Queue: 2 jobs
Job 1
Amino acid sequence: MLQYIGRRVLQFIPVFFGVTLILFFITTILPGDPIKMRAGEKSMSPAVYQQLRHDYGFDQPWYKQYINYLEALAHGDLGTSISTGRPVNEIIAESYPYTVELAFAAIVIEIIVGVGVGIVAAVKRYSVWDVMATLSTSILVALPVFWLGIMLQYIFGIWLKGATNGNFYLPVSGASGDGFSSFAHLILPAITLASVSTAYAARIMRSQLLEVNNQDYIRTAHAKGLSPSGVLRKHALKNALIPVVTFIGLDLGAMLSGAVLTETVFNWPGIGFTIARAAFALDYPVVFGGTVIVLFAVMFINLLVDISYAFLDPRIRYGGGSAGE
Amino acid sequence: MYRKFAKPVAVVLVLALVVALGAVAGCKPSTPASSGGSSTTSASQPVKGGVLSFYIGEPAYIDPYNTQESEGTQVEAALFDSLTQIDSLKPELVLPAAATTWTVNSDATVWTFKLNPSDKFHDGTPVTANDFIYAWNRIANPKTINTATKKSDPSIISYHLSVVKGYDEVQKGTTPSMSGLKALDPLTLQVTLSQPFADFDYVVAHPALAPVPQKAVEGGVDYQGKKVPFGEMPIGNGPFKMSAPWQHNQAINVVRNDDYYGKKPYLDGVAFKIFKDPETAYTDFQAGNLDFTQITTGKIKADVAQYGESPNGYTVNPGQQVLLGAENSTYYLILNNKDPYLKNANLRKAISLAINRQAICDTIFEGTRIPADNIVPPGIAGYTAGAWKDAKYDKAAAETALTAAGYPGGKGLPTLTLSFNSGGGHEQIMALIQADLKAIGVNTTFASADFPTYLKQLDAGKFQIARLGWQADYPIMDNFIYPLFDSQSTDNKSFYVNAQVDSGISAARATTDRTARLAAYNTVNDQIQSTDPVAPIMFYRHHHIGSSRVHELTYSAQGIADFTTPWLTNGGATK
């Protein structure tokens, strides 16, 4: 197992080089001058323009720029933002914790509600609960996430406030305070971000569990006298969970790359909007820095998901051993 | 037994949920609880206290040396006082600020400012002439370093100082300080210009030209035992000071400076709430959490009906909360004066007369734009209505001009190109313009490119008809006339060259008498418009709203709010 983990970590390196090299190359063929973008429609003094071009290395060929970038990265320096002159490290350090917080809150909802609803729907197949679960998940999947966010804002932030005369309501935007925010601000954005994924997770859980329940070994377990909840806990769940874990893991990876729509609607100071705005402004250092961080986060999560398979399915063993990969 | 009802019951329950959601979505959100009925009037007395929350987008910089967009300038205007200030409602009035009096010599090349001895920075140190010299050199010098990162970070707004003697040498790198700046004594600043510029008192009113304390800029600011970079928590000399460092993407909180030398604010503080999106800010306003923001698209008429419109268009008071005053920005079509077809003045005249500006403002912009009848907007000192005689809709006159150009009914004229930058929302405007031009027989085709490429095309002259917007830095006619029409200006994108206009501008700049100067600029303006080098289309307007507890908040045509005059109902104490 340790060998497997070691090998996977080493794989990070070629992936990292590949992604950053491609990104760098793309920015050289993209039209547009990042320095001129700063001035907008007003012209910039030629002396300042030349100085800025030199500062950001635009007067050098692109492969030299890439090498300089890697050199700086080896020292932990992600560069300087073209739009604001601030170190990219700072920009990411102040926004990424918020993205992580929102992502984990959403994943917790997704796991508890999604898996829970999926189990209930499968166990009580064709009952009221099952039908409600299926219908509501279908609707959630169809709803645009930003519309849902805006609706929640109106219902819980504005209407509820008016209906209870200003006594009970949820905050509509922002994260409030330094570092990690107060719980109340997290509720609506987390529910919004989790909504579609929860619906998917519930449906996958349900269909997987139904499929597993048809297996012979489940029938055998029942026949041996194990209680229904015991069958569920000891046999069915573990086997049904693998695709669900895959889905949730991939989803967490996606959320850790920044939920731009949710962040915009709720004004959540995460990294998604930061990278998106930097991309529009041609602020490449921020785009690269954000991408590198997200790259590591996603690869790490994927590794965790793969390792979890070994615990869920004894047939899967990594590195050595007779079962092979 | 109940199982056969399970499915229909479940369907009904879920559909009920959907209908409920839809019903809530459809019904109007109730007005925020704190707005308790229409208040009697603002004849009441100002009450001290409270924190006003104000919407801004995330600024690029709030350090004066590099404030680029309106958000940064707004925050910075609360923290800093420049030498002079311009009256929020009357742009012809230049008032004292950090300077109590100033004099100018007869040919408008030497300005002498006497500083207010009570003016202090927020850390208690007095403001001296050298603080201005240090600040301005920092802006003009392309070798300026960001003292926090120790990396080069020159100011991209150095053009404010381009008229100061020594600016060119500093830009070339021969010296770090402008020779035209002298401190005659700690409280007297003498500025020598490289050319006459009688409106220089307007230029120095710009928030970017504020003084900065050198020690804090280079050594950082103390905050809770740590040193914070100056750019994160600037120390100014204005009516408000930072209470904590800039919380990026969240808020900038400032509190009243009780040692302020001027008129002390009633507000305890201002919370600049940073939003990524004006729509979200508007939702927060409806939830009662924001005191001033932009009105979201489609809601202007409804808001005017619900909250009342401000009579002067710029000042918020309870019951008069929607602001629709004209802003100091013009949207205009650039016509390539070097193009073989468009160099024909009658063709340009025809194009300008053919466009139905009112229709554009009404249909696309819901009234948040005003048809332009001049290149300078109404908020500029010296504006006269209808100064650009062809900036109006007159189809018959357009057809006559087209015939005079040699293309009767458009015959003989090839298809012209309408260029614009994609993603800026200009497609709809261009569609209406295209239809207007077709109606007189001029056929056009679109050419769009992303913004950086588009700017490149303009500079290279690869366009026939294109569009730009111009936002004034100071509310003076020179700030439109010179950049857009002088042959030496790099912002003159229409390749318009007229030596008479050039010398007219220089002469106007040297005219120290204000009335005579305005008349001189208007004469130049008249000369320019006679050949229609560009076609002004529309002026921008405010589309902002204040909450019902705000009194006397004026948001000027320049887009700067003055926070020394407003006060909140009951000093902000409602709950």
Job 2
Amino acid sequence: MKVYLSYTRDLEEVADRFAAQLRARDFEPLMDKQHITPGFDWSTAARDLLRSADAFVFFIGRQPTPWVEREWSKVLEESWRRGTVPMVPVVLEGCNPPAFLLERQAIALSPAPENGAEVFDSIVAALSRGPMLKAASSAPAALGEKQRERLELLEKQAKQLQPDRAELQRQAQTLRTTLASQQMQDSPQVAETATQLADLMKSLKQPNEALEFQRIALNSLLAHGGESNPDVARVHSNLATSLEAVGQPSEALVHLERALKIYLDTVGADTVTVAMTEGRLASVLRGLGQDTAAKAHQRAGEKALKAASLKFLTGLPIVGPIIKAVVAQGSKKKHGRSQAPDGKQSASRSRVRKKAARKKAASKKAASKKAASKKAAKKKSAKKAGGTKTRGTKKASKAKVSKTKASKKKVGKKKASAAKAKMTRAKTPSRTPASKAGAKSSGTNVGRKKTASQKRPARKKQPALKAKTSAKRRGRPS
Amino acid sequence: MTLPIFAHPELPLPDPALSVFINCPFDDEYEPFLDAIVFTAVCCGFQPRTADESLGADVSRMDRILHAVFTSKYSIHDLSRCKGEGEELLARFNMPLELGLALGYRFVSTAFSNHKFDVPPGKKGATTSKLAKELEALGNPHRWLVLVPESIRVPKYISDLAGYDLESYDGMVGSIIERVTAWLMSREGAVPGMSPGPIKRDFSKFLGEKAALKSEWGRVRWPDLLKAARNCVPKL
């Protein structure tokens, strides 16, 4: 059986003696000083050591150090993880065990070493018994009584924090004086003081006065910082609450709508704040009998909450990337391609887009080179044939090229072949030997070129079509 | 109970031995975690404290913070929001500042608890003697817990704290409840018998009470929040 020994500094010797005795009785004692190498990460090493232990013995003396207390926390977490773990507190006379060990039957340790053997036997007996005996003080009734007493004490203390009506009125008076002097100086602090006063008025159950101070706060914020500020939205929201309290839901609606607009502009749509504001708007609208609008805001609120939750979850350190991948896969299935849930992915997508654009530009350059060489070849062959090319013929062939460029951009193979047919028709009026030769030499190339440069921007289509029209109009051989 | 020497005379003083000062972001995003810390502390039998706990209008905020830190035996800090924000990427310094105050208090309380003072009242050094007695009455010196999300590499982030073992959590409310319960239940003053299971179970009840308060008042005051927590504590 592996027994982990935790001890306060003053009981280190006792723990060492006990470890030696345990070893003699075929137990395996585990101590941090023997098993954790200095300089190593204590947290990880201690966790592994605690996980390997079958039982825990705590020697509790005076003034536990932060390290011992930390060890106790880790043991406690380990005990919750396992469900039940044998834990034996050995408490030095006059010392108090930590709360989680108060539930266990403790073994008393005398400062004099005489009872050493007795203590050792008691610990071994406790370890051999398996699950530890619970202390009488840990009975549900006793624990419940302790809890009740503590909660009463906390309540009493909290009452000190919550001043009575007379105290609130005194504070309100002080704040009114402060506010007046701040208003005289047109100080930006007016908003804060007025908000505090509004809160005080609410505590005093004076909603109309609260409303008045909230309006002062709003005007001050607008005068000093402008509308586009979450603080302004917060005041609008508070105003809406007060207006609802005094039975003016229509005015409350106006302020909530303003608050929502500011929140959307400043904190973004995928936030809990927006979701809550949408929810409140829905509730006010429902109260006013505008069910359709209420439903729309309800839906928007749910959407915002969903987006906020997703944003929060994808931002988590371990599960975040997994959730992100699952969401991306889901949207890929839904839309046929992945969506960019965050800036990182959209950045990588823009990189891909840039790369594609570069590729396109390169192919365009190659295509124009080919076109130029083809043109030169045509000229050469025309010269060879001794024929003269009219302006119209030239234009027609130019139109051929530009039309080719234009037609291949937006359409697939079908459209490209249709354009090829059109181009052949455009060729017909200029049936000179030169054009025939050109058509012969470049017929297949034109088709290929079309397919290669299909991705050209659509705006280039327009001049090509114009050129085609002018070629049709004027492109007669002289 | 004697009045600790650091207490502000105009502010209310709950029992310092049962007080837990909470230093964390007070924003909408962190709200569920703050609620979890407050509720867990109340369930374990402690009194959560902040600078905003009382309505004392004529006491400056810094004085209130000092009062709350220096009259609490325990403190819980979460530094997860200490990162660049806004266009200028400035971090919020309130939380490291308050952790610094707690560390200072711990240093002072440890130093005093390790020394014996025996100065008769009225003589030179009598104040120190009073302080030592008060600290002795508190029991152990000030103890603090720093919660850090797993994603933050602490040694790089606050290298001065690298020697300490800080508690990491996985960014979930349940994980915070477990860490805080384990920490508080292994301290002096906790009510025995509490474990994370019942706290997690009744946490939603507490959130419901808080939501009701919020819809009624627009903003939940600290004493009302504590009252809501007390009403929802799982019965032992």
